[in-house]
Write a structure and sequence with these properties.
NiFe/NiFeSe_hydrgnase_LSU, Uptake hydrogenase large subunit, disordered C terminus, EC 1.12.99.6, Cytochrome-c3 Hydrogenase, chain B, 17 helices, 3-stranded antiparallel sheet, Ni-dep_hyd_lsu, single chain, alpha+beta, 601 residues
Amino acid sequence: MNDLNSSSLDNSGRRIVVDPVTRIEGHMRCEVNVDKDNIIRNAVSTGTMWRGLEVILKGRDPRDAWAFVERICGVCTGCHALTSVRAVEDALGIDIPLNAHIIRHLMDKTLNIHDHVVHFYHLHALDWVNPVNALKADPVKTSDLQKKVSIAHPKSSPGYFKDVQTRIKKFVESGQLGLFANGYWTNPAYKLPPEADLMAVAHYLEALDMQKEIVKIHTIFGGKNPHPNYMVGGVACAINLDGTGSSGAPVNMTSLNFVLERIREAEAFIKNVYIPDVIAIATLYKDWLYGGGLAAHNVMSYGTHTVVPGDRSTDLVPAGAIIGGNWDEIHPVDVRNPDEIQEFVDHSWYQYANGAKGLHPWDGETEAKFELGPNFKGTKTNIKELDESAKYSWIKSPRWKGHAMEVGPLSRYIIGYASGKEYIKEQVDRSLHAFNSATGMDLGLKQFLPSTLGRTLARALDSELCVDSMLDDWHQLVANIKGGDSSTANVEKWDPSTWPKEAKGVGINEAPRGALGHWIKIKDGKIENYQAVVPTTWNGSPRDANGNIGAFEASLLNTPMERPDEPVEILRTLHSFDPCLACSTHVMAEDGQELTKVKVR
């Protein structure tokens, strides 16, 4: 079986609606049907904002596109900018200097690490961790647990955990629970002992500090965070090792050593806290192996972290696609081929000029049809149920050779493992061994990895890959500079007079959430067409004309729920993707007029 098809779904049971899905980027709605045993038999995922960014970019200077698309989201910032400048450079035939190549790697991997850490501790962990239950913990036993989970982490004393517990107690007693206020803390789906909850909350607080430090790398090379500066032809920073270290100064040895310190800090946190925490939580939820969905069938990666510029065989994370769960056959992916990647709108609130025919992004259309939807039961202010047989989302349905695909860290790791990448194989084998040793189970890789737990683990392992390779990047950059190369940009084709009358290009990347592509057409020096197909467009897509369902919907099927009115299980699996609806959909007034005005003082 290659795809999961809606013909096998059963929407006759009780309908559960989660709207909005919180702790994500953007606006999302999810509906499921559960049978008499409270097992999910049907799922409907909806993006509830219109996508209009492509319309905004038409007619603009392609050298400026990165600055617009970077504002798609305040979390996924630099990955869109990087993919955009790659698309323009591909169209115009621009090669960037080696220093720019390395610096872009450092900035991109910084984004991945920051995104993964924030996702797990501040968005996803609360699906597994009960902070209120931490008040019952014994700090001495918590200290013992910490040393068992990761003896290398220095913050492990009973006094440290007692202080954290006191902070939680004051927070709870104040009545200002904030994001903890609406948790389903009495739901039996939460299974961690109080000591594990206390340890996790302590790391939640530590991660707040860690994440603000790692992004300072963006301020060195890109001037700021979020939305660091990029440029077509290279990077927007100069190098002068003899320069002084002040704000706005060229990159020098002082700032490079500052970057190295941040990398080392991130390395310690990822290896001593993040990965051990994910494995510990997995062992305590050892029977929760749901949420595989398309990860057990169809996965895709564009590949990333090319060590030698222009040589994709040196990608640390390889490209490819796997169909029908056959890990023995990895298909190449050609993002330029109009027969491979197409977007459909059969169940999206858009309309193509040629009807339901799928369009390659170079020929993509973003024509919203507000009169087409939404179709629902209830009222506009109280939508009871969307009609999944009709149009029901502002997200399009991208397909690879007609297949619905899952993208993201889990897909990257399945393809990397199946491709025989030794670093990735060692990471996965080590993690599975730790899980089996702690639980006494004997799970095989295909039983464990394609699941919600495996998807969450893959993000942590991806962080480790990024931080380890950042050390290599840093040393390569310093050696290259000391060898006399200080170039950071190629401006030979900066002037539009050097461009062809018409050109088209594509930029690809593996963003934190998965395969990201930007396709551009340039005519007379201006953007004629621009289309971005983002990871959440792949994962959050509605059904297509053949009934094939997207990764969000597929991953929820056959999941049992403890209390359907408290949808902890739905949130666990959806959050494991870290949905970014801000990337897959954009808001704009129906008549194109200004929505609101904000004055910043």
